[in-house]
Amino acid sequence: MKKIIASPHAPKAVGPYSQAVETAGVLYVSGQLPIDAETGRMAEGIEAQTRQSLTNLGHIL
């Protein structure tokens, strides 16, 4: 059975797809942008962008 995963703490999907889908014991996560879900602002600089993308991923997991 397929389970759609959506977190209000990560940016919403921009297109017609889910933040993540779990099926047959495997989790598929969409690409994460370095955007803060609360402010809608993109982090500046590679370190801040990497940190924000991983934070968003953590919210989805």
Give the arrangement of secondary structure elements:
Elements: E1 3-5, E2 20-23, E3 26-29, H1 46-60
Antiparallel strand pairs: 1-2, 2-3
Describe this structure as you would to a colleague.
- By secondary structure, this protein is α+β, with helices and mostly antiparallel strands.
- The chain has a single domain (3-60), classed as RutC-like (60s Ribosomal Protein L30, Chain: A).
- It is built from one helix and three strands, in the order βββα.
- A hairpin with a 2-residue loop joins strand 2 (20-23) and strand 3 (26-29).
- The longest helix is centred in the last third of the chain and has 15 residues, at 46-60.
- The chain starts with a strand and ends with a helix.
- The model has no long low-confidence stretch (mean pLDDT 94).
Task: Note the run of SSEs as H and E.
Answer: EEEH
CATH class value: Alpha Beta
Instruction: List low-pLDDT spans.
Output: none
The main β sheet shows up as: 3 strands, antiparallel
State which percent range the strand residues make up: 15-25%
- CATH-derived architecture: 2-Layer Sandwich
What is the residue-averaged pLDDT?
94
Give the beta-strand count. Answer: 3
As a whole number of angstroms, the C-alpha radius of gyration is: 12 Å
User: What's the overall geometry?
Assistant: elongated
Name the helicity range.
10-25%
Number of helices: 1
> What is the CATH topology descriptor?
60s Ribosomal Protein L30, Chain: A
- Kindly give the count of domains: 1
> Strand order across the biggest sheet?
1-2-3
Our measurement of the CA-to-CA distance between the termini, rounded to an integer number of angstroms, reads 18 Å
Say which CATH homologous superfamily is assigned.
Answer: RutC-like
| Helix vs. strand class | alpha+beta
